[in-house]
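agent> step 3/5: call structure_predict on target 'Nitronate monooxygenase' (Phycicoccus avicenniae).
agent> reason: downstream docking stage needs a structural representation; sequence fetched in step 2, passing through unchanged.
tool.input:
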Amino acid sequence: MRTPITDLLGIEHPVVQGGMMWVGRAELAAAVSEAGGLGIITALTQPTPADLVREVERARALTSKPLGVNLTILPSIDPPPYAEYVRAIIDSGVEVIETAGANPEPFMGLLGGAGLTVLHKCTSVRHALKAQAVGVDAVSIDGFECAGHPGEGDVPGLVLVPATADALDIPFVASGGFADGRGLAAALVLGAHGVNMGTRFLCTQESPVSDAVKARIVEQTERDTVLIFRPLRNTARVAANSVGREVVRILDEGGEFADVRDLVAGARGRRLFDEGDLEAGIWSVGMAQGLVHDVPSAGEVVRRVVAEAEAVLRDALGSVSEGPRRASA
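tool.output (status=ok):
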C-alpha cells in the first residue's frame, strides 16, 4: 500500500506506531518496522541520551528497516536535556524523528543537516501549517479521540483530517481513534496518507506493559476514558480509573495543579504499567480502545490493518460502481 508517506519514510505500509511514554521500546518499535510500518522509540522513556542510543542499538539488532524516535518537548520545572537527546537521536542513526509538544524550529537546522526526516505531531490545522512553514517533512495530526493531549479545540478526526488535507502541501498521517483497517481506509479517503496508532499497539504482545493493562483495554469501551486538566487548558485523555476521576473532581472544584501533582506523577504511571496495579496512577489510552478486542503481535496488527483496509476500499468501490439495487416487483 504505497502513499506519499510510505515514499517519504521508506516504509512498506502507511502505518506508524505512536511514540508512547514507557511503551516505545526496542522490541515493539522493531516489530512494527519489521512488519513494514514505522516503529518509534520514545526518547524520554530512556533515563539518559546514552541510554537512548543503546536502546536504538537493541532495536537495530532486531530489524534493519527504518526506525523513528519520538521526542516530546514540554515545559517542565526540571526539563530534560533536550539538546542532548537531539544529538543522541542524530548519533543513533535512525531515519526519522517524531517531534511533539513545542515548536521544533530551534532544532530544524541540526536535524535537516543530519539528514533526518522530521514528522511533527499537531492537534490543529493552524499548528500543522506552522510546522510546515518551519520546514518539517510531514505532520501527524491528532484528533480529539486520541490518548494523551488532544489540544483544546475538541475537533474530531472526521473534520480535522480533511481540513488538514485541504490546508497542507506536505504528507501527513491521521492520529486518534485508529485501530483497524476500516480506520486506515477512512483516513486515506479523507485525505491523509496513513495513520498513527498508539492504543492499538499498546495492546500487543511486544508492548512492555503488564498483561493486566492489556486485558483492561480489551474489556473497556470507547466510553471508558476521562479528560483531565481541562480547567488548566492542558487537556489529557486517560483511562477512567479512580485516580483519573479524582483528578477531574479536584480541578472541577477549583483545585490547582499542585493539588493533583502527586496523583499524576509519572512514576505512578510507570509503576502501573510495570506492575499491573490499574489504580496506581493515571495512564493514557484513547477512545480507540473500544475497537481493540485482542492482544496480537505488533506485526499481525500491521498486516491485518493493511489487508482489511485494502478489502474495505475494494468493496466500497465495488458497491459504488454497482449502484443501488432495485427492489423486485
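agent> step 4/5: record observation. Residues 298-322 form the longest helix (25 residues).
agent> proceeding.
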